[in-house]
Amino acid sequence: MIGKPVHRVEDARFLTGRGSYVDDLAFPGVLHCVFVRSPHAHARIRSIDARGALHFTGKEMQADAVGPMRAGWALAGMVEVPRWALARDTVRHVGEPVAAVFAESREAAEDAAERVEVDYEILAPLEEERCFRWARGDAAAVETAFARASRVVSVELVNNRLCGAAIEPRAMVATPDTLYCATQAPHHIRGYVCAELGIAQSELRLVSPDMGGGFGYKGKHYPEETVLVWAARKLRRPVKWVARRAESFLSDTQARDHRTVASLAVDLQGVFQALRVHTRADVGAYVSSFGAAIPGPIYSALLAGLYRTPAVFVEVAGFYSHTVPTDAYRGAGRPEACYVLERLADKAARELGLDRAEIRRRNLIPPSAMPYKTPVGPTYDCGDFPRVFERALEISSYQGFAERKKASEAKGRLRGIGIACYIESSGVAPSRLAGMTGARVGFYESAQVRVAADGSVTALLGTHNHGQGHATTYAQILASRLGIGMEKIKIVEGDTAAVPVGTGTFGSRSIAVGGSALFRAADKVIEKGRRIAAHLLEAAPADIEFASGAFGVAGTDRRVSFEDVAQAANTAHRLPLEALEPGLDENAFYDPPNFAFSNGAQVCELEVDPDTGTIELLAHHAVDDIGRVINPMIVEGQLHGGLAQGIGQALCERTVYEDGQLLSASFMDYALPRASDLPAFVSETDETQPCTHNPLGAKGCGESGTIGAPAALVSALLDALAARGVADFEMPATPHRVWQAITRLRRER
Asked: Distance between CA atoms of 45 and 60, rounded to whole angstroms?
């Protein structure tokens, strides 16, 4: 079954309205919660008057000794500002919760929250407040290479801040012993909440049911989770909160927000000699779960890219601001790294008079160099970067672009083509490596395979499905390994009382890490089944082979089916109990020894109307090495979705603050890409380089499209605008900003 484009088995349930989301859950006696949030970016709370409403503030939580929210990843030397589920004394960003109000209906709770009066003393913005400093590479070697270089090119870049926009807002219901919460990481969130409340994790069950999208920001810890569990335990009643969309803009973690100065030293043939990167990352008002890790260890580890640059030095400084905290969002550090490298490669090509494809050819790491240790730490285990790159150029008809450009010029349009190559540290992450850089949580994955007497299988995993198609792809892995039909397999995730302890779904890790745990558990089932079959067939276990769903004695036609072995294991009538326990259930954990390095190349082609600044995307081609593909149909959907989100950042998405006030707090001001904005994507996968260190050979695919798309699109845009003298552009490329860039230079001339 592995490699087949099987239709998603879960789709029928969703398409017929039988999904079960948090807001669908009903509990007798439920109280609805609404949060009173700060309208100020920085202020001291003098007093709170709830006008008789049932409410709680930070003072009540303080009286109950509720602890602070701690980041899940603390870098060495990091200054962690205390953060409380409900503000105590001061607020540091607009939208920070200061009180929780409860009523019998959502409408009544909203009315009561509007009547709450908070007396604030507005405070001046804090002076520059550093959160962390992170560095990688050899600074001395880089300076030496720069001193000897024939040419140095530099760029100053802004990677625009983004908001997540899943179709389902964050939502949760708490009872005294259970939190129903739309989260990507159930065990992590349970751990955070229990630590703050000072209760054992065995006292709290967390259930994450069906979820309408996550994209990384729903996998991080939020104040509302702690408040609801604490309130439900205090009130002895169920408590429910569902965010309004405006509330999501003010409280969901945001992303990106880098300001970077980068320089590339090259020789006269365009061969890269050294790279120097200095990035200022805005972490927001507080350090979110992985808020320091994304711009620190994760981003910096990928600034070698696909290129064999001998010396690299990266320095990242994280700073606090009076804004919503930043954290993971699809791509999470990798799009930022790709954008820096690809903008530098393009600029070097222009200054040296080289074709942008040619300068990349001269610098790509060859497959013969694998495994390749980069100057910033990671070791790539495999990859044929030149092969993937050339295929992307081929399917995009890169060589024929000049003729297409002439045709556009005849229509008064500016046509451009852009290239981006990317590397991704997918399959997050080796726990050991994460721990060395400050992680406070593990990153292994777990799976349990339960085989019933009739041979049907239930698999329970610590990951979470919210659009990835796990019920299908995990079933394909088991069906292939055990030789049974997919219809006999059920996948269970998201309930800490049912599934083994796991990390969750983010970082393009479910198949590479969770799937590997499942594969290992299935192997354990087969191994025990081999011993049972040997007893049934009166043969030695070493002589038993397993293939096509049956155990047989090698060299003979004597066989027993998987179902027969399952029946024998579960009835225990014919087992030698002194040697074999009843049952055919097995568990496995998988903690990868390294990241799985997905990689690829994208080519974007577009036209610009110089009179209006409007961009039309004509084509976007992508070739991705994501290792062994389990389900090509699902992979294609993941890749296309990633492309859409990456294009959204490049074309239209931008979170804007002014004096701490969020100006882009609705879809009227924060634009998302529409289907009509996107071309028909052409994507391919290259499976010639399977991951060498997991049993499936799989690499991650969920974020690949997002990583390369912004760089490819901006590359194409600058190519189109070059004729008008535009050499730099800051995302997003809205029509107004493009028109301004064109007309500004026209006026200057």
From this structure: 14
Token reading at 663: 């100006």
The pLDDT of residue 95 is above 90: yes
Nearest Cα neighbor of 707 from 330, 357, 326 is: 330
Query: pLDDT tens across 248-266, in order?
Result: 999 999 999 999 999 999 9
Closest CA to 154 of 27, 299, 291, 275: 275
What value does the mean pLDDT take over residues 33-58? 97
pLDDT band at 749 (very low <50, low <70, confident <90, very high): low
Residue 578 has pLDDT above 90, yes or no: no
**pLDDT tens digits, residue range 612-644?**
999 999 999 999 999 999 999 999 999 999 999
> Regarding beta strands 239-242 and 31-37, do their DSSP bridges make them parallel or antiparallel, or are they unpaired?
parallel
pLDDT over threshold 80, residue 533:
yes
Closest by Cα among 623, 629, 601 to 698: 629
Q: Give the number of other Cβ atoms within 10 Å of residue 651's Cβ.
A: 26
Structure letter (DSSP) for residue 515: I
pTM of the model: 0.97
Average pLDDT, the chain: 97
Please tell me the predicted confidence (pLDDT) of residue 499.
Answer: 98
Classify strands 544-547 and 205-207 as parallel, antiparallel or unpaired.
unpaired
> Is residue 144 a contact partner of residue 716, using CB atoms and an 8 Å limit?
no
**CA 178 → CA 19, 239, 466, distances in Å?**
20, 11, 20
Closest to 672 measured CA to CA, from 690, 689, 655: 655
Separation between Cα atoms, residue 225 and residue 24, nearest integer Å? 18
DSSP-derived secondary structure for 268-325 = TT--EEEEEEEEEEEEESS--TTTTTIIIIIHHTTTTTTB--SEEEEEEEEEE-SSPP
User: Contact at 8 Å (CB) between 38 and 91?
Assistant: yes
Q: For residue 689, what pLDDT is reported? A: 98
DSSP per residue over 436-464, as a string? Answer: HTTBSS---EEEEEEE-TTS-EEEEESS-
Predicted pLDDT of residue 747 = 73
Residue 429: per-residue pLDDT? 80
- Burial class from Cβ neighbours inside 10 Å (0-12, 13-18, 19+) for residue 304 reads buried
- Measure the CA–CA gap between 511 and 513, rounded to whole angstroms: 6
Task: Give the CA diameter of the chain.
Answer: 92
Within 596-683, residue ranges assigned H as helices are 632-651
Tokens representing residue 658 in the block: 């002014």
Please list the alpha-helical segments (H only) found in 98-202. Answer: 106-115, 139-148, 186-197
DSSP-derived secondary structure for 667-697: TTTS----GGGS---EEEE--SS--SSSTT-
In the predicted structure, residue 482 carries a pLDDT above the cut 70: yes
Report whether 67 contacts 83 (CB < 8 A).
no
Look up tokens 């810890």; give the residue. 221
Beta-strand runs (E) in 475-528: 489-492
Distance in Å from the first CA to the final CA of the chain = 63
- Residue 577 burial by CB count (10 A; 0-12/13-18/19+): exposed, middle or buried? exposed
Beta bridge mates, 137: 313
Q: What is the pLDDT of residues 394-445, one digit of tens each?
A: 999 999 999 999 999 999 999 999 999 999 999 998 999 999 999 999 999 9
Cβ atoms within 10 Å of 407's Cβ, excluding its own: 10
Quickly tell me which residue has 């992303």 as its tokens.
255
Amino acid at 232: A
d(CA 167, CA 456) in angstroms, rounded, equals: 34
Note whether 502 and 190 are within 8 A (CB): no
Beta strands in 517-595 (DSSP E): 544-547, 550-553, 559-561, 586-590
The pLDDT assigned to 724 comes to: 94
